[in-house]
Design goal:
This protein is of the alpha+beta class and 123 residues long. It is 31% helix and 33% strand. It is built from 3 helices and 6 strands. The strands form 2 sheets. The chain has a 4-stranded antiparallel sheet. Strands 4-5 form a two-stranded antiparallel ribbon. A hairpin with a 3-residue loop joins strand 4 and strand 5. It is elongated and about 55 Å long.
């Protein structure tokens, strides 16, 4: 009977610790503090180039669409994704290891006023 209580406590502690390991990547701009996330820049034609780099391809697509919507205040006129790749790093005699996902493309807003302003990420 005394053996069950410590094992239950250990199991609960192990689940708590594992829960912290499976959390997703935060939605943040790429910076010197965050290798993964999004970046964007305005284009000369009034649109924006949006780039997302993450380990999860589905989440990268979700973040790309989210940032596109933020830049246009939810009024996206056109999206054109031109890059969706997963580079592979090759190692001598060890085979290959897949890298992270890169999604990049152009976003055009319905109104030019939306396209010229810098959007803040949603909380």
């Amino acid at each position: 009977m005394t053996l069950r209580k410590p094992s239950r406590a250990f199991a609960a502690l192990a689940l708590l610790a594992m829960g912290g390991c499976v959390s997703g990547v935060d939605y943040v701009p790429i910076s010197d503090k965050s290798y993964f996330g999004y970046s964007d820049r305005p284009n000369a034609d009034g649109g924006h180039t949006v780039r997302v780099e993450l380990m999860d391809g589905g989440l990268a697509m979700e973040y790309w669409n989210r940032r596109a919507s933020e830049l246009c205040d939810g009024k996206v006129a056109r999206k054109s994704m031109h890059t969706a790749l997963r580079p592979t790093a090759h190692y001598d005699r060890y085979g290959a290891q897949p890298g992270h996902y890169i999604v990049e493309g152009y976003v055009y807003c319905e109104t030019p006023a939306s396209a010229t302003g810098q959007a803040e990420p949603a909380a």
